[in-house]
Amino acid sequence: MDPIAIVFLVIAIVVVWGGMVASLIHLLKNPDHLSGEEAAVDRS
User: Fold this and answer.
1) Residue-wise DSSP of 1-44
2) Which residue of 9, 12, 13, 24 is 20 to 30 Å from 41, comparing CA positions?
3) What is the rounded CA–CA span in Å between residue 44 and residue 32?
């Protein structure tokens, strides 16, 4: 592989995995209370 291809591969991996990690952190800090058992309780 050319060095430029490796650089773009690393950038793509960082963007994809970084986005996943950021979304997981956001979800852990701001859980969705409208799903699961809590949704049945909150509908009253």
Assistant:
1) --HHHHHHHHHHHHHHHHHHHHHHHHHHHS--TTSTHHHHHHT-
2) 24
3) 18
Per-residue pLDDT of the chain (44 residues; tens, 9 = 90+): 899 999 999 999 999 999 999 999 998 998 777 666 666 665 55
Do 42 and 34 touch, CB atoms closer than 8 A?
yes
Structure-token pair, residue 28: 């852990």
Q: Which string of b and e fits 10-35 if b means at least 16 CB within 10 Å? A: eeeeeeeeeeeeeeeeeeeeeeeeee
Interatomic CA distance for residues 7 and 9, integer angstroms: 5
